[in-house]
Structures are given as C-alpha cells and as structure tokens.
C-alpha cells in the first residue's frame, strides 16, 4: 500500500469516526424531552467505515478536506448522508497527507440525514465541533424520530461529552408526537 493510500485511509477513518460519533449522538434525543440527557452509541474500532462522495478535494494549505456530491458515511448501523461535508483540521496539528491531522470541526450541508439503528434525524445543515465536543443541527425543520415518536424544532444542540441535548423552536414552537405503545415492553 502506498503512503498516499495509507494517509487517505487514515484520513477517511478519522473523518468517519467523528461524523459517525456525532450522528450517533443525535439519534437518542427522540426518546427524551426537549432538554435532556442523551446516551451516545458506542462505536467499535473493528467495524469497517465507508465514505462515499462524488468528489474529494484535499487542501493542505487551508487545512481542510471537502467531500461534495452525495456524501455518505457508514459504520455498522449508523449512516450520515449530506450533499457536502467539509472537514477542518487544526493548523500545526499534523498534516492531511501524513494521516495524522487533528480534526477541529466538520460541517455538513444540503439535506443532512442521520440514522442510527431505528433512530433518525434530518436537518438542512450540521456542525460537529470536535474541540468543544458540540453537535448542532439546524434547518427550517429539524426532525428527530424513532418509530412513531417524532420531535420537531429548528435547531438541535448536543454537548457530546455530557450527552446533554436541547431542541429549540427558533421563534415557533417545538412539536412532539409520542406513541404511548413505544414505552411498553
């Protein structure tokens, strides 16, 4: 395997782990109130990660990698899809070519879709700040669902290291539809 292939593989794994972790944290909010604790999905290092897009541009001078067109990140039962995904790296924290760059943040846009098991979230855009351990999903309508339980707002904020989540209404109202049968064993 060439050095470029190895560094590309390491880069893809770091991006996918960060994106999948953020995706996994977004899903459990559907079973919670509009401001609550969330449990993150535990990721396995032995599960393969797959990233697909129509195009990948790596810009070392700007410390970023841009995936455009039908972006799809999959690990196990967790999937992230978007029209585009930009990964920003910390300057001086390694290099993309060397496969050891520290991810600062990831931004996804254009019809963001997250699915983890039976849980789903949709939004217009999302931002994963790896330094601050925050996930923000935004849109005209951010929808979280698990089965018949549906939460709707315009912005979901998740503190990834504590699991605390908040769904905002942005001038409107947060809407919740709960199916009482979903709580039965």
TrEMBL record:
BP GO terms, sorted: lipopolysaccharide transport
MF-aspect GO terms: glycolipid transfer activity
TM stretches of this protein: none
Entry protein name: Organic solvent tolerance-like N-terminal domain-containing protein
Coiled-coil zones: none
Gene Ontology CC entries for this record: cell outer membrane; outer membrane-bounded periplasmic space
Record carries keyword Signal: yes
Residue ranges of domain Organic solvent tolerance-like N-terminal in the record: 50-163
Residues annotated as signal peptide: 1-31
One Pfam family cited in the UniProt record for this chain: LptD_N
Protein keywords: Signal
